[in-house]
Write a structure and sequence with these properties.
Elements: H1 2-8, H2 50-55, H3 59-87, E1 88-99, H4 141-150, E2 154-155, E3 158-159, E4 162-165, E5 175-178, E6 185-193, E7 205-217, E8 221-225, E9 229-233, E10 240-246, H5 253-269, E11 282-292, E12 312-317, H6 320-339, E13 347-350, E14 359-363, H7 367-370, E15 373-374, E16 381-382, H8 385-394, H9 399-407, H10 415-423, H11 428-443, H12 449-474, H13 485-496, H14 502-513, H15 520-526, H16 536-549, H17 551-560, H18 566-576, H19 584-599
Parallel strand pairs: 12-13
Antiparallel strand pairs: 1-10, 1-11, 2-6, 3-16, 4-5, 4-15, 6-7, 7-10, 8-9, 11-12, 13-14
Helix pairs in contact: 5-6, 9-10, 11-12, 11-13, 12-13, 13-14, 16-18, 16-19, 18-19
Length: 601
């Protein structure tokens, strides 16, 4: 703009006031000598005014201001959350759909095994061919019963199947077979504790009631190809599901996510399912409502039932984080609608990962819309008490009971270490840990009570952290044969008896992990790793040599008591000393004696 303006006004010594280019506020009126006028191709820098200088903000200052603004917005959001929590009560109900661990479909003899080819594991009934009849496969009941028993449900001796009518392309019959009126399990519960990740407002423990668990068939898998193509794979049709329906007793998003997480862990522990949320084997629907705290439970001014606010349902949540985030977003939306004088509509809503708002999918159907009716083609399901008793006796120990066992004698673990042992690798890591403890206890029968009491904690640390770190670094799955329980127990026995140092034990563990097959005693002998303790005189010589390397740091430790810097000198002593002979604790004690006590003389 400036170059063009000067060129057009090149014969004037002052920019003419009539030139529209010269009237822009960022330009000033200046005299332009003829000799300094540019050629048509010479660029000119815009002349800065006092306004430009005032508006410019240094980058560092701008970043600080932006960071303060982000903190202020987070603080304001927290304050709003706390205020809304005091004024409004959130109520959440959860419906979990889980695919059962069975090779048979619910009502046909087609296989449920994964297939790369679509529409290959199907029977005539799965495709709703006219005249085809459902045939209940009894083996599908076993994993469902294990799940119901693990969730403390009452098994019903007689249950029945119903038809839930709705039309959608993934359900070719026009109805889904489920158990609505007479499910096979009722009145269960699940206890959640603080270590499960419940909200602090719920205290140390909260019990969530399970209204019922019902059997039902899955639908086809659909794949959309915009703008107008949708392909259907019927391999999944009639795959047996259980639907777990809770009571509306959850009042915090974090607790809802903890509930879904723990249900998945329990279902995997009792071998009821094969995959969880991460692979699509478990999905959650969330019912969300809000109401004013202290409101009369008899009637609700916002259209709710039984004192609760009008609920909306969020469908097909596929991760624990999505459960929590979707509840928060829907709660905030409902509060905003109510505070602005609006009314919550009963509807089905969706959630996209990474979003901040739920979206409307359709109006909420009710019992009347689905036209539930008993399925005339399927007889009642009778479950014998002897079968329930047999499954109850064979079901694995409840995860909460395992936690209690691990924090008690003889293991003496902290909850922080006990929980991952219960949850990792479908129990395989826990079995390995218990084998290590048993073997190590047998090896150390000659040691005192103090050593015996520490066996569980020492083994837990090495199984979880040291061996776990090697697995993470190698990006490898759990394999108990890579470092056998006997090998690890023998290594820890040498460490506990102070025949090797901790650094040597880590080195040997890494060698075995990488494939060294030598027995621990032979490996230690051949690699010259057995600890031969240094004398006090040898420790002092190493410490004095290390102190000479950095006298300035020695003076800092003496004058300012910066004991954290002693670690540097300990490291130097271990490097200078013979391999596997320098013990860090003794080296630290000698350094403190030489540096600190000598300064007090």
């Amino acid at each position: 703009m400036l170059r063009s303006c000067l060129r057009n006004c090149s014969r004037a010594t002052v920019r003419p006031a009539s030139c529209p280019q010269c009237l822009r506020p960022e330009y000033v009126r200046i005299k332009v000598p003829q000799s300094s006028l540019p050629t048509p191709f010479t660029p000119i820098r815009r002349i800065q005014t006092s306004t430009d200088t005032q508006d410019r903000i240094p980058l560092r200052k701008q970043l600080k201001q932006d960071a303060k603004a982000v903190k202020a917005r987070k603080r304001e959001r927290r304050e709003q959350e706390e205020f809304s929590r005091e004024k409004w009560e959130l109520t959440v109900g959860v419906e979990i759909h889980a695919q059962l661990n069975t090779e048979a479909k619910l009502f046909s003899k087609a296989s449920t095994l994964p297939s790369e080819l679509p529409n290959t594991n199907v029977a005539l009934f799965d495709l709703a061919f006219p005249g085809s009849q459902p045939q209940f496969q009894a083996e599908t009941l076993l994993p469902a019963l294990r799940a119901a028993i693990a969730l403390k449900c009452e098994i019903q001796p007689v249950s029945r199947f119903d038809r839930k009518h709705y039309f959608y392309q993934d359900q070719p019959a026009g109805y889904q077979i489920t158990q609505y009126y007479a499910p096979f399990a009722r009145n269960g519960y699940l206890d959640l504790f603080s270590h499960d990740g419940i909200a602090p407002e719920d205290g140390e423990q909260v019990r969530i009631g399970i209204k019922q668990i019902q059997l039902e068939q899955d639908t086809a898998k659909s794949q959309e190809y915009p703008p107008s193509t949708q392909l259907l794979d019927f391999n999944r049709v009639s795959h047996p599901l259980i639907e777990i329906i809770t009571m509306p007793q959850i009042h915090n998003p974090a607790t809802a996510a903890a509930f879904v997480r723990k249900v998945q862990s329990i279902l995997q522990a009792c071998n009821a399912v094969t995959t969880g949320m991460e692979l699509g084997g478990l999905r959650a629907d969330i019912n969300v409502s809000v109401r004013l705290r202290g409101e009369n439970p008899g009637a609700h001014q916002y259209g709710g039932i039984g004192g609760l606010g009008q609920r909306t349902e969020i469908k097909n949540l596929s991760s624990f984080k999505a459960v929590e985030d979707a509840i928060i977003a829907e709660k905030n939306r409902q509060i905003g609608v109510l505070e602005s004088g609006g009314v919550i509509e009963g509807e089905t809503r969706g959630w996209t990962i990474g979003s901040t708002e739920t979206r409307k999918l359709r109006g909420k159907e009710g019992e009347v819309d689905y036209r539930y009716m008993p399925d005339p083609d399927i007889p009642p399901l009778y479950i014998g008490a002897d079968l329930v008793a047999q499954l109850t006796d064979s079901i694995p120990t409840d995860p909460d009971e395992l936690m209690d066992i691990l924090v008690d004698r003889p293991y003496n673990l902290t909850i922080r270490d006990a929980q991952p042992l219960v949850e990792l690798d479908d129990g395989a890591r826990l079995e390995y840990y218990q084998d290590v403890v048993d073997i190590l206890s047998a090896l150390q029968q000659d040691l005192g009570p103090k050593a015996q009491a520490s066996i569980g904690r020492v083994a837990g640390n090495w199984v979880l952290h040291e061996l776990g770190a090697l697995l993470t670094k190698a990006d490898a799955e759990w394999n108990a044969q890579r470092v056998s329980a006997k090998t690890l127990a023998t290594l820890l026995d040498k460490l506990q008896r102070q025949q090797i140092t901790g650094a040597t034990a880590k080195q040997v563990l890494a060698m075995v992990f990488e494939g060294d097959q030598r027995p621990i005693p032979q490996l230690l002998e051949e690699e010259n790793l057995i600890l031969r303790p240094l004398s006090r005189k040898e420790y002092i010589a190493l410490a004095e040599e290390a102190m000479k390397m950095n006298p300035e740091m020695v003076e800092q430790i003496r004058s300012k008591k910066q004991l954290g810097k002693l670690g540097w000198f300990v490291g130097q002593m271990m490097r200078k000393g013979q391999k596997g002979r320098v013990e860090a604790q003794k080296a630290d004690a000698i350094l403190q004696e030489l540096i600190l006590k000598s300064s007090q003389r």
